[in-house]
Each structure stands twice: as C-alpha cells, then as structure tokens.
Design brief:
By secondary structure, the chain is α/β, with parallel strands linked by helices. 43% of the residues lie in helices and 16% in strands. It has 29 helices and 33 strands. An eight-stranded mixed β-sheet has the order 7-6-8-9-10-15-16-17, with helices on both faces. A hairpin with a 6-residue loop joins strand 19 and strand 20. It is elongated, with a radius of gyration of 51 Å.
C-alpha cells in the first residue's frame, strides 16, 4: 500500500512538472500594445483607422503571431504632454509590450523617459523632432522621416534657387524649435542663413499671426519657411493673403505638415487652395506599389461606409506599417523567449491610498525589453510606405520627398528629392545605380508657379519696405573731401564714392530706397573700423565711402566688387633738378668725361698717323694738320666729317670707334632724359624696408587702415607713428622733416596721395606700393544686395562710366600721376663702358703697331738702297743715332707714293 501511494505521488509530481513546462512553452493568447495619440487631429484621425486596419490584418494572418491575438490599447493625448503622459501610464498598467506614438514631438520627449524606465519600446510614426534620436532615448524608434532629413531637403531647395536668407515661421515648442535649428545648421553648411525667426505660441490665434507677419514686412528677405503643426484652417496663409503677402516677390516654402493636411481633406476645398497659390513644399515620398494601391482602395471603401472620416495621408501609411513592424518583432521575440513577461521594480513602489489615480506599484518592467528593441531595429520588409529599415540613429531610412507646388487651385508634383540624388523629375526608386551619389546628376525640377502667378524665379528679397529705406552710413570727412563728405550748408552728401554708388544703382534692375547717414564729429575723420562694425551689428544696412577692403573687416561684413585701388605707398620730399644749368653734365661721372675726352684726342692722333702718308687731306702745314686732326675726331660724334679715311688700318679703327660712340651717345641721351624728366629725392629713403629700418617718425592719415597695417603687420612701434588729418598737415610735417618735429615720410593710400601730389610739387612717391588693397562698399554678411552691387560696379567699369566719374573729381587740373624716382642721380660710370674703351684701345694700338712695323721695314729697305748707291760714290753714310731718328721721321713723313717710286726700278738707269 505504501509503495502504491509513493508511486501515485511520483506520478502526480511528474504531471504537475510536465503541465508547468507545457504552460511555460505555450505562447500567450494575446499581446497588448499601446497607442498614445491625439484622436481628434489631422494625423490622429488617419493614424487611428490605419492602426485598426493593420491590427485586423495582423490578427487575420496566422503566419505572423502564430495564433496570438494582438490587442491595441488606445489612449487620447489631446495635444497635451500631461494627458499624454497619463495615457502612457494607463497603457503600461495593462502590460503593453510596446507603445506606438505619440504624434507630438513634445509628448514623445516625456513618454520616451517613461518608456525607458520600464524598458518598453516607443515607436513613433509622426514625431519628427531630430533630438529624439539622441542617445538620451535608447528605446525611441521612429518609423517616419526625421526633420533632420526634411530640413536637408529644405536647405537644398533654398540653395537650388539661389536664395541667401530666409525667414522662419515656426511653433515655439520642441517640434518647431528643433526642426528650425536643424534647418539653420544645414543652411550654414551652404553659407546661407535664417535671417529672422517668427515664433508662434502652440495655440496661436489670428491676431498673433497678423502682428508677426506685419513686423516681417520691414525685413529684407522675402522667403518664408513655415514649420508648424497640421492646420486645417490654414490660418497663416489666410492672414498672409489678406496682408497681400501672397503676391510677387514673396516665396512661401512649407514642410510636410501642409500636404498632410491637404491630403487628409481630399478633395480639397477650392477656396482653401486659392490662398495657397504659389506655395512650394514637401510631402514624404510613398512609392507606388500593389500594397499601397490595395490599402488606398480599402480606405476609400471605409470612407464610403462611414467608418473613416478622413482621407489617407502619409502618416497613415507609416502608422499602418508600424503595427506590422511591431507584430513581426514580437513574433521573433517570442520565438526566442516563448512569452512576454513583466517584473516588479521596487524603485517604483509607493504607498497605496484611495486617492492615488496612478498606482505606480502596478507598473512593471518589461523583461528583456531591450531585446525587442534590437529585433525592431533589424526590421527589413516592404510595407505600404516602401522598404522599412532603420539606420544607426533609430530612424527609418529616408525614402525622399515629393516637391509639391500649388498652382491654379491644383496640387502638382514638380519633382522629387532624395539624399542620394538631390532634385530630379524622376522618382527616387527609378534612379539607376549609376545616377546615385549626392548631386551626381544635373539638379532639375519642373516649372514652378510662384505667388503672384509668375513662373520666373523670385529674387527672394527686397531692399526694404517704404516705411524703412536702406540706411547707409557714410564717413563725414574733414580732409580729402573730394572722396566723400557732408556739405555744411545743405547737409547733402557728395563726393567721388557717392557718385560711384549712385551711378551703380542705375545698373540695378529695381528701386533701392535709401537714405545717407553721415557719421563724424566734423573735426576729424571718423575711424572706418567703427563704421564697418556698425554694419556688422545691423545698426546700418551698408557703408558707402572710401572703405579699404582689409582682412579684419572681411571677417565681419561682405564687400562689393572693388571700384578703386588703394595700395599703400610712401610719400617723401623731393628736389627738382631741372632748373640746374649744368644738368647736361650729370649723365657722366668725372672719370667718364675725362676718359671720353682723352679718347677723342687719342683717336685724332691715331687716325692722323695712319692717314698722313696716304691721304692728302691730312697733309699740309702743321697748323692745318692739327686743326684737321681734331676736327675729324670731333666730327665723328655727329658723323659730319668731310675727310675720308683711305688706309685699311684707319678704317678698321673707325669701325670700332663709331660703335663706341653709338653706345656712348645712346646711353648719354637716355640718362639725360631720365634726369630731366624724373625728380630726384632729397631723402635717403628708398622704400618701405629702409623706412622701417630707420628710427624716423612716420606720418599716417587719421582713420586709415595704414596704422593697423604698420603696427600689426610690419611691427612698427606705435610711438614712431604720427597722425595727420589733412593735406595741409601732410605738407607741413614733410617740410619740417624728422629733425624739426615733422616726419621723414608719410604712408597712405594711393588715391589720397594722388590727390595730395596734384597740388604739391615738392613731394613724390618713393618705391613701389607695398601692399595691395582696394575700396569697396560694405554690407552685412550674406547680403544679397552685395552681389547685385558688385555686378553693377563691373558694368560701370566696362561701360567707362567709372573712369568718367574719376576724371570729374580728380582731373580738373590734369589727372595726378605717380612720380617715382631713385635716391641717386642716374649717372653713367666708367665701369659700365671699360670693355668698349679697352676694345677700341687694343684695335688702335694694333693698327699703330702694324703701321710702325711696316714703316720700319720700308725704312730699312730704303737705307739699304742708299747704302748700295753710296758704295759707288765718295759720300760717307751718316752714323749718329739722332741723325738716324730724324731720317726715319723724315722718311715716314713722305707720301706713300714717293716711297714706292724709290723702290721701283728705273728703266733708263743702266745699272
């Protein structure tokens, strides 16, 4: 009996164990998932029907959850963070494996922290705030496209149309602020910017919109980017239409909220579309497919039966696919864990009272909830919205956007955008692999009709409203007033720079209302850096004047195309040498003059020696021969000599001599011309290097960038720099010189120096400009007007008008020219010509040597002849040395013909 009872007990124990194992391995009959969203909203109405359809389809498909029923627990957030949080707690109390939603980014921030606390995934089909993808919310997954993607598309659209600045209209909540912040980051990458931000309260009214839009009329940009929640009343555009802001020159760009709204009320009321004429925006791209067409067909049937009270929008597609993604993931989760279980977390235990609405002790942590998140992020299937996959930021991989334009009360798709291909008229899925790659293909959109009905792309900005013309600051100069200043009597602004600006406005194809604002105390020139800073700080809209384009200024403002060169030069005293009566002696040094004169004498002697025996022009009385000899030498300088050379040796000498004369006379002429036309400096300064090396004081103009350049770039001590305020002070300081309280030189810009030198003859420019710079008009950073002004200045220069304006102001007494010179006279030294003199000397000596050798040979033959004749006579031959020398000179003094006859045999002579 005892054995039977033990066996019976063992059997029952095994039964209980086996039943436990079976129960544990068996899948649950149902799984709960929560859905927190705003029931009565554009997105919520479509999402509710879509999620119910998806749950019904999942439960009808035995291949998904293998018999487990999917329950959808819906909670209304009513557009409230507080109510949305309560709804999330209520759903969690019922043991949900995942929460779907919410559609509001602000509510998503709160529920994400709740979901993280209980390890429950939060999957949103409509919360687009980019910051939800941060590591702060590891359980948040997004099945719709993030605003970071949409704002990249928006920035590309703005850049594609060439607009530089925009005005952002947005809700001042997490969704609006963070979306516009993402847009600002993307624009900055393209060197564009949001010029003004118009913040709207969450529950904005018509008066608030009216006030903001009226304020924006005085702004320059006319491109509006609207990023708000779906608004069936279209309040922003209704007010903009009443304020006549849906006309020419305005651009209205919208994010996908508008077309989600319009799609929900399809077909749209024509009256609503009439206020949207010319609006351009984005709609999330849902590629055409059989699944999509099937869902749309079923939806229309539900509308016809009265089950669905809204049309299907893009968020409805994403909500439908979200249910399927969760169902697939739960199925895979249960394959790994067999069941869905929850456990108590003691940290959430609180004393229970009757007044407690939310019983925190009922909140349980989802066991292995992180595994479900991992499975969800590995999702990869084709849904009604396209391919559903997630990237590393837990966002769905973008399928791109449709670019929509509203024209003549019709919603038209004018192109597509994807992050891979940019803008195209071909849907992203139809692009071949070869065409993929950011902007690899030509960016293109179909024709867009803009507000006002024009197809021409709007400029996107205006100078200003009539109530506030362009405020232009001009320097009130007290010196060099020809450039720009304010007249004391009439308070009118005039000058060279003002005329250039006004003339350039004629080349701009639109009106530019403006007013000049002179700045200065009337006693000294204002500091130009402070004027430029005023523009950078938006105190003024531009600065017009003689503003040098230098590095520190280009960092804070944009400059137009330069209209004048303003390089720095050095001005110093000069002496005018043209009044010197003996200036003609300056081309040659004393050595050069002495050698040249000696050369004339030497050539005269050489030619006379070589020509005396053979040329009758060089024979005669001694006085005549001396005159002939020197006149021939001097006349070679002017090539007027009457005597001709006969001897071959003389001709050879003359060739070299005439070449020497040609070089000497050409050099003399060039040097004398330079001396007579170029003023000579009285200062030893030869350029910026010698000026810096000296310890002399240097003058500069008050307000000029010369001071900062000398101290910061050339490291000149500020104690050496003397500020000068007028041309009169320039002249006085230079005349005094460094030893008498003046300056050794002045460093200033070329335009001022030219004007100064046009009235002064005692000063001149030394050396070359040592820094290149120009003048331009300054505008705020990224100002579109700066580009148009640059184009106008280029046209002004090409047409010749710029030169005419310059001649009008600075060429009344003749245009000033730069006067440059060296520090030493342009004298020619003997060292430059010693080679020529040496060559001429060598040739002359060679000719004389040949002549002498030939003459000695003839004399020897002559003496031998005399000796032979003397042997037959009684006369003794001469033997004294002096007598021999005298006889030799007498011999060579004879004509060449007489000598030749001496050696010719006499036919009548019997010997």
């Amino acid at each position: 009996m005892k054995q039977f009872m033990v066996l019976h007990l063992v059997i029952w124990i095994w039964v209980f164990i086996l039943c436990g194992i079976v129960v544990q391995c068996q899948r649950p009959a149902s799984v709960n998932i929560g859905a927190v969203f705003t029931f009565d909203s554009v997105i919520g109405r479509a999402a509710e029907v879509a999620m119910e359809m998806a749950v019904s389809d999942v439960n009808a498909d035995p291949r998904v959850l293998n018999g487990t029923k999917l329950n959808l627990i819906k909670k209304d957030a009513s557009c409230s963070v507080f109510l949305g949080s309560i709804g999330a707690f209520q759903a969690l109390e019922q043991g949900v494996a995942a929460i779907i939603g919410p559609q509001s980014s602000a509510i998503a921030h709160m529920i994400s922290q709740i979901a993280d606390a209980v390890d429950v995934p939060l999957i949103s089909y409509a919360a687009t705030d980019p910051t939800l993808s941060s590591l702060q919310f590891p359980y948040f997954i997004r099945t719709t496209q993030s605003d970071s993607e949409q704002m990249t598309a928006m920035a590309d659209l703005i850049d594609f149309n060439g607009w530089k600045q925009v005005i952002a209209v947005f809700l001042d909540d997490d969704y609006g602020r963070n979306g516009i912040s993402a847009l600002g980051d993307e624009l900055e990458k393209r060197r564009l910017r949001i010029a003004y931000k118009l913040r709207l309260s969450i529950h904005f009214e018509l008066d608030e919109i009216t006030n903001l839009l009226n304020q924006s009329k005085v702004f320059g940009p006319r491109v509006y980017v609207v990023h708000v929640n779906p608004d069936p009343r279209l309040r922003i555009f209704t007010i903009a239409h009443k304020l006549q802001m849906m006309a020419n020159d305005y651009v209205w760009l919208v994010t996908d909220w508008l077309f989600a709204t319009l799609d929900s009320y399809s077909p749209v009321n024509p009256t609503s579309l009439s206020v949207l004429q010319g609006v351009v925006g984005f709609r999330q791209h849902i590629p055409d497919s059989r699944k999509k067409r099937s869902l749309v067909s079923r939806w229309k049937k539900l509308q016809k039966d009265g089950v669905a009270n809204t049309s299907l929008n893009s968020y409805g597609f994403y909500a439908y696919d979200t249910i399927w993604a969760v169902a697939f993931s739960i199925d895979k989760f249960m394959e790994a864990h067999n069941n869905i279980t929850f456990s108590v977390n003691n940290n959430y235990m609180r004393p229970h009272t009757e007044e407690t609405v939310i019983q925190l002790d009922k909140l349980k942590v989802f066991d292995n909830g992180s595994d479900l998140v991992t499975i969800l992020l590995r999702s990869n299937f084709t849904g009604v919205s396209g391919q559903l996959q997630f990237n590393s930021d837990r966002n769905i991989i973008s399928g791109g956007y449709d670019v929509i334009n509203i024209n003549q009360m019709a919603i038209t798709t004018v192109g597509y955008w994807s992050n891979d291909s940019g803008f195209s008229v071909v849907p992203p899925k139809n692009l071949t692999k070869k065409e993929h790659g950011k902007f690899s293909q030509v960016q293109k959109l179909d024709n867009i009709t803009w507000p006002g009905g024009k197809t021409e792309r709007p400029r996107g900005w205006v100078i200003a409203d009539n109530a506030r013309p362009l405020r232009i600051v001009v320097p009130k100069r007290v010196s060099f007033v020809e450039f720009v200043t304010e007249l004391q009597d009439s308070h009118q602004v005039e000058g060279y720079c003002i005329d250039v600006f006004k003339k350039a406005l004629e080349f701009i194809p639109y009106d530019v209302p403006h007013v000049f604002k002179p700045v200065g105390n009337g006693k000294a020139n204002p500091h130009y850096d402070s004027l430029v800073k005023m523009v950078a700080e938006n105190v003024y809209d531009a600065v017009v004047g003689d503003i040098a384009i230098v590095t520190n200024r280009t960092k804070i403002v944009d400059f137009s195309q330069p209209f004048a060169s303003s390089s720095l030069v050095i001005v110093a005293p000069i002496n005018n040498k043209r009044s010197n009566a003996w200036v003609f002696l300056q081309p040659f040094t004393a050595d050069m003059w002495c050698v040249t004169a000696a050369s004339f004498i030497a050539i005269a002697v050489v030619i006379w020696i070589l020509e005396h025996r053979v040329n009758s022009d060089f024979r005669g009385p001694p006085k005549k021969q001396i005159v002939t000899m020197f006149m021939f030498s001097l006349s070679t300088l002017f090539k007027t000599n009457k005597e001709k050379t006969v001897s071959s040796l003389a001709k050879m000498v003359m060739i070299v001599w005439l070449f020497l004369l040609m070089v000497i006379t050409s050099s003399y002429t060039a040097s004398l011309t330079s001396i007579l036309t170029v003023e000579q400096l009285s200062s030893p300064i030869t350029g910026i290097d010698s000026l810096i090396a000296s310890n002399w004081p240097i003058g500069y103009q008050v307000g000029s960038f010369a001071y900062s350049y000398l101290t910061e770039n050339l490291y000149v001590q500020s104690s050496r720099l003397v500020s000068l305020g007028s041309p009169e002070e320039y002249a006085i300081a230079l005349q005094k010189g460094p030893s008498n309280g003046g300056v050794a030189a002045i460093v200033d810009e070329i335009p001022y120096v030219e004007l100064f030198l046009s009235k002064q003859t005692d000063f001149g420019i030394i050396g070359q400009p040592f820094t290149k710079s120009s003048w331009g008009f300054a505008f705020p950073r990224e100002s579109p007007f700066a580009l148009d002004m640059s184009t106008a200045i280029l046209k002004l220069s090409e047409s010749g008008e710029l030169q005419k304006i310059r001649e009008k102001w600075f060429c009344k007494m003749g245009c000033p020219e730069e006067r440059k010179s060296n520090s030493e006279p342009n004298q020619l030294h003997l060292t430059s010509f010693w080679g020529l003199y040496l060559s001429c000397g060598v040739v002359s000596l060679t000719a004389l040597l040949v002549f002498l050798l030939r003459s000695i040979r003839q004399y020897i033959r002559f003496k031998q002849r005399q000796k032979d004749n003397a042997s037959s006579s009684s006369e003794p031959p001469a033997s004294h040395c002096s007598q021999v020398v005298m006889n030799f000179f007498n011999f060579i003094d004879e004509k060449e013909e007489a000598i030749k006859k001496m050696f010719t045999p006499n036919p009548h002579n019997p010997n």
